[in-house]
Design goal:
This protein is mainly beta. Helix content is 9%, strand content 36%. The protein has a domain at 55-244: Single-stranded right-handed beta-helix, Pectin lyase-like (Pectate Lyase C-like, 3 Solenoid), CATH 2.160.20.10. Helix 1 (3-11) crosses helix 6 (478-487).
Length: 500
């Protein structure tokens, strides 16, 4: 006897014949209408995941170009006179930078205009006015640094093990940047420690339009603060005049430990970024946060833990056509994985999502997504939550020991949110196919649906659920649904809400 059969026996329900069944008399409120469907028409195929075998630290080492001090053109430039730097001297951010730069009215940056140069060679190229120095193992940078279009900077830890960025000394990449086998951190020369207070101006790494950035085998720590494009490690389009014609920022982040950044990773209109095999630990707001119109991302085999304020992995506002798989995201202050605001056509597969303070995996206003083969356990709220999203498939997941529902599905007018619906449009519809999942030991119901548009169910196991199998709009037809599913262990049922 299957687990559902045992549940049905306890409820004393009879197995009902297949076919269209209306529950109860017509009412003003929407009523659930259900029918048995061919399981072959709804059960999905496993997603095809991208090959990530080539995204390795060794592969980045092999890509690093040879450097030459003679090939480089380096100069000091007033930031307000360079289109890539102007953004960072405006408003409050500019005031904070000027203060960090010893109160200078006109902050100057080191700019690599041409050539391929190592960081060690760069120190030897510039004079003392540049405020950059080194010893055998460490480089101290005290001014902003720009890698210009067409230029390349190589930070090779085998040559320069440590890079210490002083207050007001960000690295901004508009060309090509390699950071390999190095330790990069903010640095307070007075305390001789990293800058731990993210309310202060902390240096950051920002890759702009037309750039390529490769960070591998490195330790990146204590960067970023709460200003646009300055969050820590960011791939962000712009300036506007450049972004119109240049390729979006792109690159690889592989095999690193990234910790105590304001945002571990942030992107804005980035494309084809591979984030593979990293440890993201104790970052402040988010662990990994691709944002507006970033596309074709691979986020795989990362450990994301201890995010201090919000989610481990979150995509928001039209982050599309991406893969989030084989990650472990745990013990984060918010949810483990979140897709938000039209983050459509993504695959979330084979992740371990555990012991987060929010939900395990949540989809908000994000459609055509597949959740496949994830293990979601011990989270403080629901295992999986789907809101205002359609064409969502939830299959082959193990959802266990979460304090809320195993799976919650609902529409919501979001009337309690101050949302700009022109910027972030959504439909108040929820359509999900749910099957092949194993649900056990969750604190509330197995499936809490409602209100919703359409839910397709096929074979699943629900064990040790203390409250009930079906809740919300499904509660009144729970026995009938169980009967139809038990009548054929390989059966499938489609449920819709119909106006009463």
């Amino acid at each position: 006897m299957t687990t559902i059969s045992k549940t049905l026996s306890r409820l004393g329900a009879a197995t009902l014949a297949a076919g269209l069944i209306l529950s109860g008399p017509a009412l003003a409120a929407p009523q659930p209408v259900y029918e048995k469907v061919d399981p072959a028409s709804v059960a999905p195929q496993a997603p095809k995941l991208p090959d990530i075998s080539g995204y390795t630290v060794e592969a980045v080492r092999e890509r690093m170009p040879k450097t030459s001090r003679k090939s480089a053109k380096v100069e000091l430039v007033a930031m307000e006179k360079d289109e890539y730097l102007q953004k960072f001297v405006e408003g409050e951010q500019g005031d904070a930078l000027a203060e960090a730069q010893r109160g200078e009215d006109e902050v100057e940056a080191i700019v690599i205009r041409e050539g391929t140069i190592s960081l060690k060679q760069l120190v030897d190229e510039v004079d003392t006015k540049a405020r950059i120095k080194r010893d055998d193992e460490t480089v101290w940078l005290s001014r902003p640094l720009l890698i210009g279009p067409g230029a390349t900077l190589v930070v090779n830890g085998r040559e320069t093990e440590r890079v210490r960025l002083g207050p007001g000394a960000p690295i901004i990449n508009a060309g090509t940047l390699y950071i390999v086998d190095a330790k990069v951190t903010s640095w307070d020369s007075k305390t001789k420690k990293p800058i731990r207070d993210a309310d202060e101006y902390r240096p950051f790494i920002a890759a702009r339009s037309g750039s390529e950035t490769y960070i591998a085998g490195s330790d990146i720590g204590h960067l970023g603060f709460d200003q646009s494009k300055s969050y820590g490690l960011s791939f962000v389009s712009g300036p506007d005049d450049v972004a119109k014609d240049a390729k979006p920022p792109r690159g690889w982040i592989v095999g690193n430990t990234i910790h105590n950044l304001h945002y571990g990773f942030y992107s804005y209109e980035a494309e084809d970024v591979a984030i593979v095999g990293n440890t993201w630990r104790d970052n402040i707001v988010y662990g990994i946060d691709p944002h507006d119109r970033s596309r074709r991302l691979i986020i795989a085999k990362n450990l994301v833990e201890g995010t201090q304020e919000k989610h481990g992995i979150v995509t928001s506002r039209e982050v599309t056509d991406s893969f989030i798989f084989a990650n472990e995201t745990r013990k984060n202050a918010g949810s483990g994985i979140v897709l938000d605001r039209q983050s459509n056509r993504n695959v979330i597969a084979d992740n371990v999502v555990a012991a987060n303070t929010g939900d395990g995996i949540a989809l908000f206003e994000s459609s055509q997504n597949m959740l496949w083969g994830n293990r979601i356990e011990g989270n403080a709220n629901d295992g999986i939550r789907v809101r205002n999203s359609v064409e969502v498939t939830v299959a082959k997941n193990t959802i266990a020991g979460n304090k809320g529902d195993a799976f919650e599905l609902a529409t919501d007018p979001l009337s309690d949110q101050d949302r700009d619906t022109k910027l972030d449009p959504f439909e108040e519809r929820a359509v999900v196919a749910f099957g092949g999942n194993t649900l056990s030991g969750n604190g509330e119901s197995a499936i809490d649906a409602g209100p919703f548009t359409e839910l397709t169910l096929w074979s699943f196991q629900a064990e040790g659920t203390p409250i009930q199998i079906f809740a919300g709009e499904l509660e009144e037809i729970a026995q009938q649904l169980l009967g139809l599913l038990v009548a054929d262990d390989d059966g499938a049922v489609k449920v819709r809400l119909q106006e009463g």
